[in-house]
Design goal:
Radius of gyration: 19 Å
Number of strands: 9
Order of helices and strands: EHEHEHEHHHEHEHHHEEE
Largest sheet: 6 strands, parallel
Distance between the termini: 42 Å
Strand content: 15-25%
Bound molecules: adenosine monophosphate
Number of helices: 10
Shape: globular
Strand order of the largest sheet: 1-4-3-2-5-6
Helix content: 25-40%
């Protein structure tokens, strides 16, 4: 496994690989890896000759009052986890080579950086309504990574539901020659969606963080029982959240189309429920397909 820290070197390596006819799978991450990330790494190992995992806590996708400075980092631990995941995957996999790309902030955003990629409409809703600059940061860094690495296939998680929709739109609009694979959410044993931010919790917070999952689970049960009125489901979800975490602050609970993010009043095919809740001041997101 090779670690590359400069954009120039990564570009040169990617060029050489393309020249040799090797296919590349990329897994973009912000580091502090958990099983959710590693599930993507394992899938990538099956999909191409070369796996590139990127570790970059991207400052431009954090708002001025958000947690960029304290975002958890553990480069050594991350490298170990990637190595172990790929070692276990080798026997059954297509990949023959792996690269960890860890660019520096100044290299990605040099002085006078002024070019941004923006997906316009989809980023105004849900997360984008609460975090106005977030998706501009995401689409810009993903564009840069695609340009530097030139992957054939890129792996992202359903955990960041709106991000997946926005990136699909960007790839379509800009004609990136890359296939996007969106992998299912990996959860802790109690149902909490794995997230690097779960590291912020003390014991009580960690227990109560499961409220998002409990709410989604109750929504799914109602949908299965034939309830279609989203308002009714949302009311129950709010009650479940409050019963699990008295101090929770709900940013939003939304029912939308899986592909267009168009709001839905009734649960029907392709309806996804997504929500954001602050639990003990940690802002969590989660989602589940209901129809
Ligand atoms: P992050 O490091 O949080 O930017 O996440 C990197 C990638 O891992 C993104 O595509 C996320 O959607 C994905 N991811 C994060 N958490 C999970 C999870 N619990 N299950 C599956 N994928 C995840």
């Amino acid at each position: 496994m090779q670690t590359i820290r400069s954009i120039k070197k990564m570009q040169a390596a990617a060029r050489q690989l393309a020249h040799k006819g090797k296919t590349i799978a990329v897994v973009p991450t912000m580091g502090y890896l958990h099983e959710g990330h590693l599930s993507l790494v394992r899938k990538a190992a099956k999909a191409a000759d070369v796996v590139v995992v990127t570790i970059f806590a991207n400052p431009t996708q954090f708002g001025p009052k958000e947690d960029f400075k304290k975002y958890p980092r553990d480069e050594k631990g991350d490298v170990k986890k990637i190595k172990a995941a790929l070692k276990a995957a080798t026997a059954a996999s297509a990949f023959k080579q792996s690269i960890i790309f860890i660019p520096k902030v100044d290299d990605v955003y040099p002085d006078e950086f002024q070019t941004w990629v923006t997906v316009e409409k989809l980023t105004k809703k849900l997360e984008g309504a609460k975090r106005p600059e977030h998706f501009r940061g995401v689409t810009t860094i993903v564009t840069k990574l695609f340009n530097i690495i030139r992957p054939d296939v890129a792996f992202f998680g359903q955990k960041d539901f709106q991000q997946a929709v926005v990136l699909k739109q960007m790839v379509r609009d800009l004609g990136f020659p890359v296939k996007l694979v969106i992998a299912p959410i990996v959860r802790e044993a109690d149902g909490l969606a794995m997230s690097s931010r779960n590291a912020y919790f003390d014991e009580k917070g960690r227990w109560e963080a499961v409220c998002l999952y409990y709410a989604l689970r109750s929504a799914k049960e109602m949908a299965k029982a034939g309830v279609t009125d989203c308002k009714k489901v949302e009311k129950e979800m709010r009650a479940v959240i409050k019963a699990t975490c008295r101090t929770a602050k709900i940013d939003y609970i939304a029912f939308t189309d899986n592909n267009t993010l168009a709001p839905r009043k009734k649960i029907e095919q392709n309806t996804v429920c997504s929500l954001s809740v602050r639990v003990h001041s940690v802002r969590l997101i989660d989602n589940m397909k209901l129809g």
